[in-house]
């Protein structure tokens, strides 16, 4: 059975404090920056076409999120992805509501063709990107991660990317290995952009790891443990949002190792 040293991944992020360049949506910027700071990484939010290629080459990782896209932003994302590829910088695609409109479907296909290291989305987004589903209800998934397993494995094999499908139980695959990560809390989907911020956390782990699959699993495992801890005392979405940042900041390797719930098998 394949195992992952979760403590080592968390320690490397905190010891290295990687710069993560995020071209993300308007709603997510503040949340993502605070989450990355709580984790121990360094966030950069830069989307001007005139500078994204420089930032992408400087950063330890790049993340692209199409949540509030415009044609200019898509051009900037394209340029950043190409610069990241040229510099050997790993990058994450977050295809928010990719199946909802023609603009999003075209943007998703355009960015997917640039070979992301990781694609992280909900089940409906991954199924739409793989052309195996309708795309959910706006930004919300109408499918389970289990329903998206076949699409995720096929997409990983077709693109060479690691596919991370997040939901009640997360699923990560590189086409050969398949991990299920359980945990988190029911209030997590009630706090806007926590999923978008997770994409940044995946980027931070990618920046300091050699294996994108292991990095993605470690990122999701730490996120779910922090969510579980935050939910123990939260009274609702507002207090949960604050408690989550505190839990992520305070997360230690012993707690992560003890509370992480993951299973790794061979992809079928």
TrEMBL record:
<keyword id="KW-0547">Nucleotide-binding</keyword>
<protein>
    <recommendedName>
        <fullName>Hydroxyethylthiazole kinase</fullName>
        <ecNumber>2.7.1.50</ecNumber>
    </recommendedName>
</protein>
<dbReference type="InterPro" id="IPR029056">
    <property type="entry name" value="Ribokinase-like"/>
</dbReference>
<keyword id="KW-0479">Metal-binding</keyword>
<dbReference type="GO" id="GO:0009228">
    <property type="term" value="P:thiamine biosynthetic process"/>
</dbReference>
<comment type="similarity">
    <text>Belongs to the Thz kinase family.</text>
</comment>
<comment type="pathway">
    <text>Cofactor biosynthesis; thiamine diphosphate biosynthesis; 4-methyl-5-(2-phosphoethyl)-thiazole from 5-(2-hydroxyethyl)-4-methylthiazole: step 1/1.</text>
</comment>
<comment type="function">
    <text>Catalyzes the phosphorylation of the hydroxyl group of 4-methyl-5-beta-hydroxyethylthiazole (THZ).</text>
</comment>
<feature type="binding site">
    <location>
        <position position="120"/>
    </location>
    <ligand>
        <name>ATP</name>
    </ligand>
</feature>
<dbReference type="Pfam" id="PF02110">
    <property type="entry name" value="HK"/>
</dbReference>
<keyword id="KW-0808">Transferase</keyword>
<keyword id="KW-0460">Magnesium</keyword>
<keyword id="KW-0418">Kinase</keyword>
<dbReference type="GO" id="GO:0004417">
    <property type="term" value="F:hydroxyethylthiazole kinase activity"/>
</dbReference>
<dbReference type="InterPro" id="IPR000417">
    <property type="entry name" value="Hyethyz_kinase"/>
</dbReference>
<feature type="binding site">
    <location>
        <position position="166"/>
    </location>
    <ligand>
        <name>ATP</name>
    </ligand>
</feature>
<dbReference type="GO" id="GO:0009229">
    <property type="term" value="P:thiamine diphosphate biosynthetic process"/>
</dbReference>
<keyword id="KW-0067">ATP-binding</keyword>
<dbReference type="GO" id="GO:0000287">
    <property type="term" value="F:magnesium ion binding"/>
</dbReference>
<dbReference type="GO" id="GO:0005524">
    <property type="term" value="F:ATP binding"/>
</dbReference>
<keyword id="KW-0784">Thiamine biosynthesis</keyword>
<feature type="binding site">
    <location>
        <position position="45"/>
    </location>
    <ligand>
        <name>substrate</name>
    </ligand>
</feature>
């Amino acid at each position: 059975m394949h195992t992952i040293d979760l403590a080592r991944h968390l320690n490397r992020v905190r010891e290295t404090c990687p710069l993560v360049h995020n071209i993300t949506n308007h709603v997510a910027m503040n949340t993502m920056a605070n989450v990355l700071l709580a984790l121990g990484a360094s966030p950069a939010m830069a989307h001007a076409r005139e500078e994204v290629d420089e930032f992408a080459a400087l950063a330890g990782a790049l993340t692209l999120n199409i949540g509030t896209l415009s044609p200019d932003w898509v051009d900037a994302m394209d340029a950043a992805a190409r610069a990241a590829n040229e510099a050997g910088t790993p990058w994450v695609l977050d295809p928010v509501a990719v199946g909802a409109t023609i603009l999003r479907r075209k943007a998703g296909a355009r960015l997917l063709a640039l070979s992301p290291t990781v694609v992280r989305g909900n089940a409906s987004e991954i199924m739409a990107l793989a052309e195996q589903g309708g795309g959910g209800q706006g930004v919300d998934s109408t499918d389970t991660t289990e329903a998206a397993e076949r699409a995720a494995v096929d997409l990983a094999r077709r693109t060479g990317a690691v596919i991370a499908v997040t939901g009640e139980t997360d699923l990560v695959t590189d086409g050969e290995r398949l991990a299920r990560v359980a945990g988190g809390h029911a209030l997590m989907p009630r706090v806007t952009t926590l999923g978008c911020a997770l994409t940044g956390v995946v980027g931070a782990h990618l920046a300091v790891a050699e294996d994108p699959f292991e990095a993605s699993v470690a990122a999701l495992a730490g996120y779910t443990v922090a969510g579980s801890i935050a939910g123990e005392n939260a009274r609702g979405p507002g207090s949960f949002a604050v408690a989550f940042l505190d839990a992520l900041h305070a997360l230690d390797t012993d707690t992560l190792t003890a509370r992480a719930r993951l299973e790794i098998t061979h992809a079928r």
